[in-house]
Amino acid sequence: MLEAAHAVKRSGATFLRGGAFKPRTSPYEFQGLGEQALKFLALAREATGLKVVTEVMDADDLAMIAEYADVLQVGARNMQNFSLLRKVGALKKPILLKRGPSATIKEFLMAAEYVLAGGNYQVALCERGIRTFETMTRNTLDLNAVPVLKSLTHLPVVVDPSHGIGLRKHVPAMARAGIAAGADGLIVEVHPCPEKALSDGHQSLAIPEFAALMEQVRVIAGAIGRPM
Ligand code: PEP
Ligand code: MN
Prior knowledge:
Layout: H1 2-10, E1 15-17, H2 35-48, E2 51-55, H3 62-68, E3 71-74, H4 82-89, E4 95-98, H5 105-117, E5 123-127, H6 145-152, E6 157-159, H7 161-165, H8 171-180, E7 185-186, H9 207-223
Parallel strand pairs: 1-2, 2-3, 3-4, 4-5, 5-6, 6-7
């Protein structure tokens, strides 16, 4: 965790996102380390100054997670968990809301609306890929959503190329495309040794790959008048 945190910070990352409670497709896969992982994230924040983003899957864990996290992620699978949305809407913490794999842009916006309607106006929208007929990639990163969301709302739009395409070698291309399309931020999965990752290693960048990507992103952001 610390190795990853120091490395991404050196390359210019401003947040550290790690899953302590993981929504895994199979119950037999690594489920996250729970509160222990939140402590690791807090240590990494202390060591680097990076703000911590982590997912809340269950409202029962909300108070505990909110003690450690700077930003709470509501994952794709929970995008329409309306009772959870209402509960995070009652908090004073920023929410990173991921688009459901089969949600329309309108449904995505209405999910964000649940949080705003509760009085929490700090919501970032994350496009993370939708499910289509395509099988060569994990999801289809819907970059159409970026300019459409930007035109319909003032909320920041973040692109997740890691889940969006799901293939390490193609993540940088989609990250660059996300920034070119007007995204306000990226979330990119990074691991010091992706082959050993307990979750999503096949789509995690090694540290040098992330460093190279950040250089490219800096150039693209500058070219469209949004210097980093
Ligand atoms: C994640 O962000 O690691 C994750 C599980 O993503 P999603 O909710 O978009 O599937
Ligand atoms: Mn993941």
